[in-house]
Every structure is written in structure tokens, then in C-alpha cells.
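Mods, move this if it's the wrong board.
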Amino acid sequence: MRITVLTYVEASERSTEYDVVVNQVARALRRQGHQVAVLGVHADVKRVIAGLQRRRPDLVFNMVEMFAENIFGDIAMEGLLDLLGLEYTGCGPGESYLTQDKALSKKLLAFHGILYPRFAVFARDADFETGGNLRMPLFVKPLRTDASIGIHRNSLVTDMKSLMRRVATIHEDLNDSALAEEYIEGREFYVGVLGNHDPIALPPIELDFSGLPEGVPHVLDSKAKWDENSAAYKGTKSVLADIPDELRAKLQKVSVDAYRALRVRDYGRVDLRLTDTGDIYVLEVNASCYLARDSEFAVAAAAAGIPYPALIQRIVDLATDRYRRGAGLRTRTDSLKKAPSNGKKSGEAGKKSTDEGKKGEEAAKKAAEA
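Not the wrong board. C-alpha cells:
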């Protein structure tokens, strides 16, 4: 199969924004026998269209997270792929919007009876409000950005003055609305989910905050996530959750329910908090989550018997099967006519990787039932 990995920029000596995970995904796809090309969008629509027309991919492995410094730039790229009639991995523009707008996500979770922290939105260019009857402390974060952008130690506020200051900072620095939600004290878990028609939950990963200094909030801020030299990074780690089977099953069920409620496609990750009283709150649903070999998603998949190359292939299989079922949007099927594929080699690779994917799915289902 001809697969184009779509990213923000390609690798080069001058590039400081290139994501090394793109190489990991591309290598995994090549190991599965696919013909792989990497294409950077470079905030240039004409360049993207020309590149896709030259490559004529059977599938686009979509890893675009931004475009032209726009919050919804990745959604625009998904819309472009739909207009070009190309099949691609992950969510479409509608599903991506649902997961990116955290307030809208919470309203949908509420409709499906899924617990989430109570919240208030402080919109830009609007009069400041008190947040109603929310209970302090509050956790304040950007409404739409992800990857812990805009989340710092002072994101946890305990008084109105701190709340106003944090909201103003998000408005000014990130040009985004602010979402303030009641802070849920408890254990934090990540649960990866794979699938469309019949999604399966991977083994839960727990965030271990025990290495943080006493009194520091148990929050994964931007330093804890990205700054390897920071005390927050060194004091926080993710581990396979050592929990009773009953609790594991509950976390997985809530995660699959949230995944379905927000119509996530192919793969994603659900972030949860477990209180001392046993209540499970959904914090966020991350569509098309981080795919590094050492990411929580990949580690959980490996624990379920799905090694990294098979995991990437499984995402490919899920996307192609979704289009075969007619669940993926194809609007202009004549936009990019496909050239004949290298049948025998890619066919053999597809059979091999599909077999691996089935084995991995069986293992994951056993893990989910355990």
C-alpha cells in the first residue's frame, strides 16, 4: 500500500519543529511492507495538494497537529483531505472539533451520563464572570489547545484573584478562551482505545506523582510533560496500573463510553481521575493521541500483546476498514485518481500485518476482559 505520512514539516538540519515520532511511524509502516513517503504541510495549501497529487497515496497517515499557527488548522487539513477524496487515519473535521472544544466535549459526556468535573468557560472579549457556584480549587486551562500547552503549576487556583489572573494570561498569551473546572483530587489514569465499530480498551496506565516535592499539586503541566531537566518531569512517571480486575474493567468501560460519545475514529486516549469514593471522572478525550514508541498509548498496546509495528498497522487497518464500511467521508473520489499499486508485495505485507493485528486485537480483548 502507498502511504503518505502527513506532518507539519519534514526532517531537515534546519528544522526545529520536526516531530521525531513521524520517523518512528514511517519506519514501522515500512517494516510492514508499505511504500511510505513523508509530506510536510508547511502552512501552504497549494504545496500540500501538489505533494499529494504527485504521491497518489492509497492512505494518508495523518499526523498534522497544526497549520498556519491556527488552533483549528489540523481540522482544516482534515477537511482538505475529505475534499480531495483521500482516505486518512484518525478523526474527520467534525469529530476533531468535538474533542478539541473541551466545553462541548463535556456537554456531550453529560448527555451520555458520563461524569466530568463541573466547569465554566471564560470567553475572550466577554465580560468577566465569577464562574457561578463552582467549588475551589479550580483547574484553569485553555479551552481548545492540547499537549499541556498553557498548563502550569499556577493553573490550580484557590481564590478569585488567582482565577482572574490565570484567565487573563490564557486570553493574552494563547489567544484562547479559558476553561475553569473543579479540581478532582485522586489518582489519574490514561486508557487507550482502539477501534470504530467495536472499540477495545487497552490496559490502563497510571500517572505516578510520588516523586514530586510535598505540597506540589498532582498535575501534569507543560514542564512535567516536556522539560526533561525539570523537577516536575523527573518527579512524574507513567506506569502500567497495578489495580484490581474490577477497577480495571470500570476504567476501561468508562473510557470506551467516552470514546464513543465523542465519535472518535480509529484510536484515541481517555484521561480519567479516580476519587477516594470510587467515582471515575473523565478529564479529557484525546483523539489521534501521541504515537511515540515510548508513549503511554504504545506502552499499553505492548502490554496487551500489540508491538509497535503491529499497532501502527492496526491503525491503518482500522482506517481502511472504516472506509470500506462507508463510515469515512469521501466527497470527491475523482480528485486524486489512484495509480495501480504494487500488488504482490503490498498484498503479502498487508496479509502478514493483518494477521498480526488480529492477534494483537485478540490479546487486547483478553486484557480488557481480565
